[in-house]
Write a sequence for this structure.
């Protein structure tokens, strides 16, 4: 068994069970296994060794210690996932899943004692594979990147554009891509924007990043077009950038440099901030619109915006927040919101894109609810320029939908 680079914590009041779990995990190849008898000890371990990849938590005796540990370690971003090592009622399980979701801790399921070696191994190894798939890492030392490091990373082109397809849910055809920032760190691998965007924002570097992305993105778009894929490209934009001086002129220059019309360029804005400086935002958005660019309302439904004010913006696309897909099976509210947004899009003749589609079941339910367009790991993860071009060659035919992993799966090919 190869070594598994995972940091695991066994939280159990029973010393015999701690020994049993440690023994199995060590035999599986886990090199860093720690034990704790209660929440205090568990937090001391975290303080000493850093973030925990998987915590095996016993929840008997009301599970106070485990819940407290989940709450404290999860809220500080120092716990990635949990496995519950006792059986739980459906009610407690629902609360636990919800709490884990809120805290961003993955809930890997329930494994009862005495431990079934195979089940535990399968759960731990598949999580390890998940961590080592192409997901970008969020460094777990609890700090954001420093200003110097971020400036150097931008200057040395370590922060680059990744592209994630937006696709037709029925055919799998890719209509466009969204640009997402990634830091290809020479030692730490591909890092998530959650690690460096707060620094980029704080240091006023969002526009520096955006204009780099415009170069990289428009160049990619031109290469895709030359291969026969006339895809659109979307850039994330924050309200403060929009109203910064010279913004429109710089976008005009960037488009002109690639001799591309604005029609296939979309700017994605969240509701945050738009309504604060409403008049200037509307004016700039109208200028972008006049250049032919599309305007998308990102994370739609996650804020509490006034629909009336939003409707004054010249937007051309609605991106429904991924939360509604995640929650689709936990009650009727999310479904009602999805249906309502589809109806709103139809009434305004504006396409609705649903984010965060990960499974075939979600895709089918969304199609049944009238959703036509989506984005999510089911179709493809964000990838760099060369990978995207190769992916398009393998998954799409110029002008026609070819067999995608997704529709091949539907047909039972995969
Ligand atoms: P966003 O604009 O809502 O982007 C979608 C996020 O969802 C991306 O996360 C993407 O990788 C992730 N995602 C896509 N499909 C799935 C899926 O099926 N399941 C799950 N769980 N996640 C999925 P990412 O790249 O970590 O970006 C997070 C946020 O950071 C973005 O949310 C956006 O608000 C911001 N961001 C990322 N890159 C940039 C950038 O270059 N500039 C600016 N201003 N913001 C950016
Ligand atoms: Ca976005
Ligand atoms: Ca979004």
């Amino acid at each position: 068994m190869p070594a598994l680079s995972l940091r695991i914590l066994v939280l159990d009041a029973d010393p015999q069970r701690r020994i049993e779990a440690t023994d199995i995990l060590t035999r599986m190849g886990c090199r860093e296994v720690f034990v704790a008898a209660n929440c205090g000890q568990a937090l001391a371990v975290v303080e000493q060794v850093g973030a925990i990849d998987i915590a095996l938590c016993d929840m008997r005796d009301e599970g106070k210690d485990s819940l407290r540990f989940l709450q404290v370690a999860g809220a500080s971003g120092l716990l990635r996932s949990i496995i519950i090592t006792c059986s739980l009622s459906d009610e407690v399980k629902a609360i636990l899943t919800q709490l884990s979701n809120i805290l961003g801790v993955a809930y890997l399921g329930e494994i009862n004692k005495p431990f079934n070696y195979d089940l535990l191994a399968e759960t731990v190894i598949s999580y390890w594979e998940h961590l080592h798939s192409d997901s970008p890492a969020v460094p777990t030392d609890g700090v954001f990147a420093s200003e110097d490091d971020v400036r150097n990373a931008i200057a040395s082109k370590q922060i680059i554009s990744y592209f994630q397809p937006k696709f037709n849910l029925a055919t799998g055809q890719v209509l466009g891509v969204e640009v997402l920032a990634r830091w290809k760190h020479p030692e730490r691998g591909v890092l998530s924007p959650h690690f460096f965007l707060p620094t980029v924002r704080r240091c006023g570097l969002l526009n520096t990043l955006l204009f780099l992305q415009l170069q990289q993105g428009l160049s990619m778009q031109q290469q895709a077009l030359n291969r026969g894929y006339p895809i659109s490209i979307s850039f994330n934009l924050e309200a403060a950038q929009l109203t910064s001086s010279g913004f429109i002129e710089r976008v005009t220059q960037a488009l002109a440099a690639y001799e591309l019309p604005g029609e296939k360029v979309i700017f994605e804005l969240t509701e945050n901030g738009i309504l604060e400086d409403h008049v200037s935002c509307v004016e700039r958005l109208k200028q972008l619109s006049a250049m032919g660019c599309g305007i998308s309302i990102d994370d739609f439904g996650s804020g509490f915006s006034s629909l009336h004010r939003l409707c004054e913006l010249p937007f051309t696309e609605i991106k429904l927040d991924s939360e509604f897909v995640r929650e689709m099976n936990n009650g009727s509210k999310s479904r009602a919101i999805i249906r309502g947004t589809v109806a709103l899009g139809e009434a305004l003749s504006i396409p609705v894109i649903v984010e965060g589609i990960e499974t075939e079941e979600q895709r089918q339910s969304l199609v049944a609810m009238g959703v036509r367009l989506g984005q999510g790991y089911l179709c493809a993860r964000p990838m760099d320029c060369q990978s995207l071009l190769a992916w398009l060659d393998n998954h799409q035919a110029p002008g026609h939908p070819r067999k995608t992993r997704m529709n091949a799966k539907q047909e039972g090919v995969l």
In short: Residues 164, 180-181, 192-194, 197, 206, 209, 213, 236, 238, 298-299, 355-358, 375-377, 382 surround C2E (ligand 1) (CB under 6 Å).
